[in-house]
Design goal:
By secondary structure, the protein is α+β, with helices and mostly antiparallel strands. Helices cover 69% and strands 9% of the residues. A hairpin with an 8-residue loop joins strand 7 (508-518) and strand 8 (527-536). Helix 2 crosses helix 5 (64-75) and helix 14 crosses helix 16. The longest helix is centred in the middle third of the chain and has 67 residues, at 337-403. The chain is elongated.
């Protein structure tokens, strides 16, 4: 790293050319980021290290994120990977991955303090994560394309997941780098050359069409040591990372733990149990009944017998009797009652299945909106922090101009007041972040104060106006919305209940058989059996069956009306979702254009003020306009994300299916233009 400028060398540094000045700023920023961390480093700190006015930093870079992006671009790691993969002599897979791994570790080791800071900041700072994520995505895509070529050449298996391989490859190298710098001498230091060779060979032998377990097995020791190192990093080095989750992970956790899902599942289980009850009515029924009776007075009489036999006493009513009855009943003809009841129960199961899907879709929407709210709150916090930094620069400039006698004290007082207001907005934004995270944790079933970090969302799709047609999405919604499927199933169930009420007027025919074991008396044996064919004709019930039929027909009309109301509601939701998404995208484009203008206006106002040709009022007004423009851009961005989530919910499709619809519509439109 270049030596940082000192006060004695300030004049010489000021005379540096533009490229040298930019490199000087980048060197100072990288040194301070590594020393103090990204969040705790201010633009004033970087300006002091360079011996220049803070306004000059903004002349080259509009924010700290731009500085960080430029620092990462200096290392040209994606270009290095692309160059390795384009080698004309066609090295082997092992040689290629080994060279990439050595280049990656060399870059990390040569800039170890900065790399360790970056690894730590990525876990808790969404802005840093976005900047680093762009570089990581580029490298990942290069590796994936390279592995795709290796698949076509038959070097590796067709079922190898290239993206998983890329993530495992680079994340393992990063953890090895952390272990080397944080755990030595706690853990035995492993030579990088040996580690890279072991990692590459282990991964490759796991991908070959005929892997050699004997060759790969000896490298398991290396990976086992690496696993211990990764676990010990968080313990021995004292690092505590908050749990970072993607949107998909948050949705999966909510679907597993939220009580609404348990409620919907219990309702489905109840409907399945009712179906089993209905089916059991048609099946045989076997009952066993036992009776023990004590009674009195006893009744008996004596019957004389021919001599020499003594008279015989016969008991008619014994003091104690036992009865054991086994009864078998089987319905033979029910007039359609049981069939209608079973069908109705089946439709209710279908309705509960659809309601479960609807509950999952609603919960997914709520989690998505809460997730977007967290990202929006964090971005607004960063906007407020940048506003504080800009006002601090204005205040510092005003104090310097006051000491030089070229500005009134009013400029300092005004800047101090603006700084206090900006700091208050920062506190409000930080509280909003905490509340947004608490709301997301509540949906996930976690403690509301549990630390959580969320991964950035992809850029919203910007389809053409022809792709966002209400009719197309309404057709999908009427075919896929689970609420509508539930309503259809409830209508079918209500119709079957009407059929059941009509069938209740038909005769019943069932078979009953009994076998009894009992106490023998003078008039009965100790057993008895019977087989009965029973026919039951409903003759008069005082209008009960007719009233039940009228009730079920009214419930059927109620279900039909509910379906119509639901169809209208879905049509309105689709119309609102399509229009809101269109407006959100337009707002986002407008906000980004306004932000570009506000950034340029602030830069010009600052340069004019520092040159003595502008007023502080211009700078502060431009700073307020810039803060508002950045806040508007953040709100528009995450409003677009939430509008897209509501469009997905309104159509009843998955997010991937809606994205495919919009992408296909764009492709069709492009083909039509090409044919013209």
């Amino acid at each position: 790293m270049k030596e940082l400028p000192t006060a004695k060398r300030t004049k010489r540094w000021v005379r540096l050319q533009r490229d040298d000045r930019r490199e000087q700023i980048l060197e100072a920023a990288m040194h301070l980021f590594a020393e103090k961390g990204f969040d705790r480093t201010t633009v004033d700190d970087i300006a002091d290290a360079c011996g220049v006015a803070p306004g000059l930093i903004y002349h080259y870079f509009d924010s700290k994120a731009s500085l960080l992006r430029a620092i990462l671009q200096r290392y040209r790691f994606p270009e290095m990977v692309a160059e390795i993969l384009r080698r004309p002599h066609k090295p082997t897979l092992e040689e290629t991955l080994t060279e990439i791994a050595h280049a990656y570790l060399t870059m990390l080791h040569e800039n170890a303090p900065f790399a360790l800071m970056l690894r730590s900041e990525v876990e808790r700072n969404p802005e840093v994560a976005r900047v680093v994520g762009v570089v990581a995505k580029t490298v990942k895509e290069l590796i994936c394309r390279y592995l795709a070529r290796q698949k076509r050449a038959g070097v590796i298996r067709k079922d190898v997941d290239a993206e998983v391989f890329a993530r495992v490859f680079f994340s393992t190298l990063m953890e090895f780098f952390i272990a080397q710098h944080r755990l030595t001498p706690i853990l035995h230091r492993l030579p990088p050359k040996r580690f890279v060779r072991g990692l590459v060979r282990l991964l490759i032998y796991g991908m070959l069409p005929h892997p050699s377990a004997k060759k790969a097995g000896r490298w398991f020791t290396v990976m086992r040591r690496l696993s211990l190192a990764c676990v010990a990093v968080c313990i021995a080095s004292g690092i505590s990372f908050a749990q970072q989750m993607t949107l998909q992970e948050c949705v999966e956790i909510a679907l597993r733990t939220h009580p609404q899902i348990r409620l919907a599942l219990s309702q489905r289980e109840a409907s399945v149990a009712r179906l089993r009850q209905a089916q059991a009515q048609w099946r045989p029924e076997l009952n066993l009944t036992g009776t023990q009776r004590q009674q009195g007075p006893t009744v008996s009489f004596t019957v004389p017998l021919p001599p020499p036999n003594p008279p015989r006493e016969i008991s008619v009513v014994r003091p104690s009797t036992q009865l054991l009855n086994l009864e078998l009943r089987q319905s033979i003809y029910d007039g359609g009652r049981f069939t209608a009841n079973i069908r109705s129960a089946r439709y209710f199961v279908d309705a509960s299945d659809a309601l479960l899907q609807a509950t999952r879709a609603q919960l997914t929407l709520r989690v998505t909106e809460a997730y977007a709210d967290v990202l929006a709150a964090q971005a607004l916090e960063e906007v407020a922090r940048q506003s504080v930094e800009r006002v601090q620069v204005v205040l510092k400039t005003a104090k310097a101009r006051l000491e030089a006698g070229v500005a009134p004290r009013f400029d300092v007082l005004r800047a101090e007041a603006e700084l206090a207001a900006a700091q208050e907005q920062l506190l409000t934004a930080q509280n909003a972040v905490a509340l947004a995270k608490a709301a997301l944790n509540q949906l996930l079933g976690r403690p509301t104060n549990a630390p959580i970090e969320v991964a950035p969302l992809p850029e919203p799709i910007t389809p053409s106006s022809e792709a966002l047609q209400t009719e197309t999405f309404l057709t999908q919604a009427l075919a896929h919305r689970p609420e509508l499927r539930s309503a259809e199933a409830q209508i079918q169930a209500a119709q079957e209940r009407v059929n059941f009420a009509k069938a209740d007027k038909n005769p019943l025919l069932f078979l009953s058989s009994n076998y009894q074991r009992q106490t023998e008396t003078g008039f009965s044996r100790d057993y008895a059996w019977s087989v009965n064919l029973i026919v039951q004709f409903p003759i008069f019930d005082s209008g009960r069956r007719e009233s039940v039929l009228q009730e079920q027909e009214a419930l059927l009309q109620q279900a039909l009306a509910q379906r119509e109301q639901l169809q209208r509601q879905i049509a309105l939701e689709v119309e609102q979702a399509v229009r809101n998404y269109q407006v959100a995208l337009q707002r986002l484009n407008t906000a980004r254009a306004a932000l570009a203008s506000a950034e340029e206006a602030f830069r010009l106002a600052r340069v004019r003020y520092e040159a003595g040709v502008g007023t502080q009022v211009e700078v502060l007004d431009a700073q307020v306009a810039l803060t508002q423009a950045r806040a508007n851009e953040v709100r528009a961005l995450y409003d677009a994300h939430k509008a897209f989530a509501r469009l997905v919910y309104a159509t009843g499709l998955s997010e991937a299916e809606v994205r495919k619809m919009l992408t296909n519509a764009q492709g069709s439109e492009a083909d039509a233009l090409a044919r013209r």
